[in-house]
Amino acid sequence: MREQSGRFVDNDPILPLGQHTEVVLRETRRAENLAVRMISFRHVSRVYPSPGGEVHALRDVSLEIAPGTFCAVTGPSGCGKSTLLNLLGGLDQPTSGEISVDGLALHSADENALTAYRRERLGIIFQFFNLLPAMTAIENVELPLLLRGDRARDARARAAEMLELVGLTPRADAFPHQMSGGEMQRAAVARALVHRPSLLLADEPTGNLDSDNAARVLELLQKIASQRLATLIMVTHSPEAAAAAERRIPMMDGRLS
Ligand SMILES: Nc1ncnc2c1ncn2[C@@H]1O[C@H](COP(=O)(O)OP(=O)(O)OP(=O)(O)O)[C@@H](O)[C@H]1O
Ligand SMILES: [Mg+2]
């Protein structure tokens, strides 16, 4: 297509005039729709059976999150924050309602699709770092790439890049027990991002860090968000961490509040 005297003229020799333009516009609109609704919860509930009666961990939650947003999920203990994150991670299924991420319907996806989703599109950072203790920092970071079958040399090079990003190059060969809490958590961030996921989930990523290390990890998460490397959903009890996010999603008793 090129512009001629203020009008778009279609030069595609295969399609008749105008039709190609229509297709392009339609595809663009479809991409926009998908992008705008990257994460959507529609009337999602999660009820856990329990000896003392059912626990309503999520009650009719509807929510949309645009791609690239840095969101903080906040609220008192037991209000359903981890439940929401587990559902987004495809680690748990809703009792009712629909969840879609990037066009994939998590509530109806089969186990193969969910495994592929977790391996390719998702990064997860936990409160307790959970690095593998027998592996060095760089070995921990390259692991997701080796698991998906990348060549060892490529995996090592990419892991080194990620350690650079989180400021851990000098600690690449340290084992977790030789690292500080902040270093371990930064290594965990590097590992969660190494395969370029479109969605990064973090459950209290600064919960076990002192204030200096918490600030460094937060700064790193903000950098990831500002470069739009991934949509970032972080559960936190920390007001500083919540303030660092672009959007806050407060919860109370299984609902958005
Ligand atoms: N596997 C389970 N079986 C039964 N009840 C559960 C289960 N997991 C969570 N719950 C209950 O669901 C509710 C929500 O739990 P959830 O872990 O989502 O809370 P949270 O907001 O993450 O809390 P915290 O801030 O303490 O981590 C709680 O009442 C909890 O006891
Ligand atoms: Mg929790």
Provide a brief overview of the structure.
With 257 residues, this protein is α/β, with parallel strands linked by helices. It contains eight helices and twelve strands. Strand 6 and strand 7 form a beta hairpin.
Helix content: 25-40%
Name of the CATH first level of the largest domain: Alpha Beta
Could you name the ranges where pLDDT drops below 50 across 5 or more consecutive residues? 1-18, 32-36
Oligomer category? single chain
What do we call the CATH topology of the largest domain?
Rossmann fold
* Overall tally of domains: 2
H/E element sequence: EEHEEEHEEHEHHHEHEHEE
Strand order in the largest sheet: 8-9-10-5-11-12
Bound molecules: adenosine-5'-triphosphate, magnesium ion
Assign an overall shape: globular
How would you describe the overall organization of this protein?
The protein has helices at residues 19-36, 81-88, 111-121, 137-147, 152-165, 181-193, 211-226, 239-244, and strands at 2-4, 7-9, 39-48, 55-65, 70-74, 96-101, 104-105, 122-125, 199-203, 231-235, 247-252, 255-256. It is of the alpha/beta class and 257 residues long. The strands form three sheets. Strands 8-9-10-5-11-12 form a six-stranded mixed sheet, sandwiched between helices. Strands 4-3-6-7 form a four-stranded antiparallel sheet, with helices on one face. It has a two-stranded antiparallel sheet with strand order 1-2. Mean pLDDT is 86; it is low at 1-18 and 32-36.
Spell out the blueprint of helices and strands.
Layout: E1 2-4, E2 7-9, H1 19-36, E3 39-48, E4 55-65, E5 70-74, H2 81-88, E6 96-101, E7 104-105, H3 111-121, E8 122-125, H4 137-147, H5 152-165, H6 181-193, E9 199-203, H7 211-226, E10 231-235, H8 239-244, E11 247-252, E12 255-256
Parallel strand pairs: 5-10, 5-11, 8-9, 9-10
Antiparallel strand pairs: 1-2, 3-4, 3-6, 6-7, 11-12
Helix pairs in contact: 4-5, 4-6, 5-6, 6-7
